[in-house]
UniProtKB/TrEMBL annotation, chains A, B:
Cytochrome b5 heme-binding domain ranges (all copies): 80-157
Keyword Metal-binding annotated: yes
Taxonomy of the source species: Eukaryota, Metazoa, Ecdysozoa, Arthropoda, Hexapoda
Keyword Heme: yes
GO MF annotation terms: heme binding; molybdenum ion binding; molybdopterin cofactor binding; sulfite oxidase activity
Species: Euphydryas editha (Edith's checkerspot)
Protein name: sulfite oxidase
PANTHER family, per the entry: SULFITE OXIDASE, MITOCHONDRIAL (PTHR19372:SF7), SULFITE REDUCTASE (PTHR19372)
Gene Ontology BP, a term: sulfur compound metabolic process
Amino acid sequence: MSLRTLLLRNLLRQSRITNFAPVVLQNKSYSRNEKYNWNSKRNTAITLLASVVVGSAIKDDQKENTKSDIVEAGEKRPDLPTYRAEEVSKHDSKKSFWVIYRHGVYDVTSFLPTHPGGEQILNAGGLSIEPFWNVYGMHKTKEIYEILESYRIGNLHDDDVADHSDDELWAKEPFRDKRLIVKTAKPFNAEIPPKLQVEHFNTPNELFYVRQHMPVPDINENEHKLTVTIVGKNTTVKEFTMKDLDKFKPVTLNAALMCAGNRRSEMNKVKPVKGLSWTTGAISNAEWRGVALRDLLAHCGLDPDHLDDLDGKHVILTGADTDATGAQFSTSLPLRQALDTVLLATRMNGEPLPPDHGRPLRAVVPCAPAVRSVKWLQSITISTEESSSHWHLKDYRAFNPSKTWETADFSTAPPVYSLPVTSAICDPEDGDTVQVKNGHIEVKGYAYSGGGAKVLRVDVSADGGRSWREARLRTDAAPPARHYAWALWAVEVPARGDRQMEIWVKATDSNFNTQPEKFEDIWNIRGILGNAYHKIKINLKY
Amino acid sequence: MSLRTLLLRNLLRQSRITNFAPVVLQNKSYSRNEKYNWNSKRNTAITLLASVVVGSAIKDDQKENTKSDIVEAGEKRPDLPTYRAEEVSKHDSKKSFWVIYRHGVYDVTSFLPTHPGGEQILNAGGLSIEPFWNVYGMHKTKEIYEILESYRIGNLHDDDVADHSDDELWAKEPFRDKRLIVKTAKPFNAEIPPKLQVEHFNTPNELFYVRQHMPVPDINENEHKLTVTIVGKNTTVKEFTMKDLDKFKPVTLNAALMCAGNRRSEMNKVKPVKGLSWTTGAISNAEWRGVALRDLLAHCGLDPDHLDDLDGKHVILTGADTDATGAQFSTSLPLRQALDTVLLATRMNGEPLPPDHGRPLRAVVPCAPAVRSVKWLQSITISTEESSSHWHLKDYRAFNPSKTWETADFSTAPPVYSLPVTSAICDPEDGDTVQVKNGHIEVKGYAYSGGGAKVLRVDVSADGGRSWREARLRTDAAPPARHYAWALWAVEVPARGDRQMEIWVKATDSNFNTQPEKFEDIWNIRGILGNAYHKIKINLKY
């Protein structure tokens, strides 16, 4: 085992990470799961968690592994005993926990507490981990294969070896524009290149940043139904087809969507965090069109002015994308906020929603982390409970810089339903060489604030904060306190002979909140809400 | 003239300050003004602007001047010519501008452009400045008398010397609790001592911080009327007595009021700013009770759901407090914000409004700078125009740190209708010596955010930001996005043998906005919105 892998394994042992709720397995016979066909041979993967935890020691997370790495893991080893699947399947508890990978049988009992994905691993007790790794492709790296092999105890009997292919699983992924900067391939996560980001106020659909948790579901629009359940003394359930939704008054809103982890890579430089290593490209803006949630719920009999305990209720949104256990993506938000802001969108920038962005129907929750804007929307439930999914309960919560994975309590931390003010320089990019014209260079970027606030002012400094220049702003004409779009900005910065320049940007929003100078004081274990000043260094030529 | 005064005069000449709109004088015969009796001899004063501009060079603005200072200015000087009042009164234009002070006649033509109060000075052309200085008591300091005397050209004829006393003007000022920390006496501005600030969630009325612009009007509650004007095709005007207002459904809200300049003294340390040198005591919290503005306007026929151009309208609030020209205090805010948040309050913490806090009626505009919460409310006007008062047009607007009085354009800068997240340490205070008990000290303070946001978390550091401890919070139970009260916090900080400790605090609000670390990047000419970390240094004993 390489030193790097040994280091990773020790780190995993030390960091007791439980960022997923336990998922109780309903049916352990995956070969009978009608949703996925496990029977094909090709595997590809990119690590995620490992590379983030170990930082620069791990290969760039955008490279795919070579064939030789794949051959090493799960190969038959004549020096080891052979086990039947039935025997392996008995070892499915925390006291003795075995798994299968291709020809290999592994005793990972001592590894369980250090699994970064938490107790999700328990679903694989006594079974092959391949179907799970087909969904959670970030496992498929040399380093993780090496860790796996360190727990090898034997071979699976030839008659029990199954072919778990992910061909079918990922066969229906939509076409993606080659200009997108890919962070992970399966699931697909990609950001928009900075210079393209500021070319249009409304980001073209094919360039809108993409964040998936799982494969993109392929939905037949003519058969798709949205179920609305209002829990109460007399619980009501109503179903809507896409044609039914077309009958409602169409509402348009111009809104940005931003991942809570946008700019995480900058926070990661201070101290490693867990999550996708977004730079500044996990935000885009569009004109959305559809039905106001408020109108749909009114049709279902929900009258906010005469509702008991309005502030104690939540809107649970569930999508059609599912993980290996069949669990559907789900999250929730407070009812009051949902009534005020949520659009059930069918169109994006004048076109039907693309598959990557939720076709045929998604929630658009302005001003909140985009995780709340559930795609491929299947159901809406009004309840006194929040969503019980692990994505909702064990993630998207913020802590102070001193909280660790051991001391952070996700169950008591408030969920993130809003976003602080942020901004970024998109053109030029860090490291660029820029031609000075007439003693100036032009600098462009974006700014954005959640909670309905508007960006009021953007200031740029090229002298370490000693002086600031106010940028020209381009914003949407939405009313105050209901401002959902981003702002694009541009400013001329004088260049007087220096060969290099460091440029800072900061935005002030309509509540006069502004950004912290550095990431140290806002660092948090999940690397979210990173809104310190964006700073770049460029070279100048005259 | 002392060096200090010379310095001040030069600074004033260099800084062309026009932070007040021109006020056209209606009636120059002040002796006939029925509101004030000028005929008495006593003068007292505290400087304001001068001490702030020159910073530490000027005496502490809380001390009253000695009698010897007063004797120097305006005394008869046998070496100079004598003028009749009629002659002086002809010199009332920018080409030749004379004023009177006691026995002195002064040609201040060349001083006009540098008057920090802007063109307000034009009202005194050819007249005595004493009535004006009786209202704007911040002029009455040794330094300003010296500047005045440097423009001396003669004596006023004995027969024309009048006695302008401010006894009557300030005779009806309410009784003030001696524990308040006075910044200026006339008008009265005082902050609450830090340790008292955190004793009660709702600040006792007698300790609530006080900010006056002018003398406190003495209003007969039984005769007081509130006029509501809705400007439109058919402008409507309605009058309400206090008894009329009692008939509306009472509404209660718990809200903090904070001066936009709270913590200005900390910003002033970076670079001098103009304004009252508040420390952390210009914020308090109370339970307010009265009539919702929305309900009153509905009664007057205003239906927000069927109103043209809701977002283009403003609510102009006018109070009964007036300046020397008779102009009443006035400001405005956007109609939508007003409908959502404004209370017309008659009671404060269960008692009728005290005189200092607006008896019998005031606006309470939560989440906004307290200047918008007009006291002694006399009229409400719904209009497409903002208030035209100088307090509204030429103040309470924010700029980046590089804007100067010359380059800052108040007419295009957006008004401040909200407040960013802030926090302060109240107990212990800076410089205290604290007894360590069981290896800890207890630290307490407040936190607050405008725009309806709730304080979510307060973190304290005693090691320069390397580690942070989360404080216990006490907040109000208001619904999200409509959170108007402050939060009080407390935390135990370990003390392990150090003799000194520097403590920092920062708050995070429900939009996950947090505070900038230092004042440099948020500095602005008026010293408002100063929400960088509050930091104190204390001594420890064991």
